[in-house]
Specification:
41% of the residues lie in helices and 19% in strands. It contains 13 helices and 15 strands. The strands form three sheets. Strands 8-7-6-5-4-3-10-9 form an eight-stranded parallel β-sheet. It has a five-stranded mixed β-sheet with strand order 11-12-13-14-15. A two-stranded antiparallel sheet has the order 1-2. The radius of gyration is 23 Å and the shape is globular.
Length: 364
Amino acid sequence: MFKTPRTVYIGGAGKTKRIAIGGNAPVTVQTMWKEGIADILKNGDALSLLLRRIEVLKSLGCDILRFAVPDMESADSLIAIAAETSMPLVADIHFDYRLALRCLKGNVAAIRINPGNIGNRDKVEKVVEACREKGVAIRIGVNTGSLPEDLEKQVESGTLERAAALAQTAAREAAIFDELSFEQVVVSMKASSVSETVAANEAFAALYDLPLHIGVTEAGPLISGIVKSTLAFSTLLKEDIGSTIRVSLSSTPENEIIAGKEILRETGKRSGGVKIVSCPRCGRQGFDVHGFVNRWQTTLMSIDKDITVAVMGCVVNGPGEGKHADIGIAGAGGKAIIFKKGKIVRTVDAENADTVFKEELESL
């Protein structure tokens, strides 16, 4: 039997939205910024562009956004970004505890640290006390590359499974925060192996009530990364393990969010929003399905409507197989048809398809 996770709150300062993780709160979706931010303050346009992209991520369903903070310039940039957005931002800190202290001068929503590489106990305590004073949560991040030396030796000798070593490492780190009476803690244990990720999280969840951030680390490019994440998440989420998720991909943050939302939808952890149904395309195609989906995916997934959109390549898969969709598009012979609930409402030249589709979509 697995423990019901306690509730941890992040955000709430300044413009930042306050979000609950764990307890009865919905499972949240997060991603990580893929570029460095050290030079953001030197370029006003860069900051405004970054903030606009954050708004796109938010419209896609991103709840939490994490930034790597490898130096003081990045810490100052993150403070500036956090002051201008309602998105809860997490500072990802390694090695230098002073970076966490600097980030806490602003409205950063949470600090992610790996106590194993921050240094001695005194440095961890300084971060904890600063977070306590600011009301900021901490995520303990453990992965297979940061196991304590004694546990790593046992893994190498074959006397301890790597998944068990991950869970034991997280338990050791969590004990430090328990001793310091700091309860606003989220834990993550990530491996690049699906089975190890699942086993580590199951072992920890059986003993502790800390909310879990689940993910398969270094999952790979788009296809293999989504496959691994789906397998791990579907198993854990069906066991009610996992309070927040990240699909780690060698791809864009937008794709990580879309993948995460779809996994939550298909596992019954999230409902509503736009559902896209599109055919794989074949030799019968009369409409560029792939091109249309690529052009429209981000826009469609950002719409605040509970609808199904069908994109079909020919009349065979058009209104027939897509008749359940609220709106759909298909084509043949240089023409495109727009249909709603299986009934054709517009027939237009293919070059006008996007414009007409937009008109009919907005009329829903």
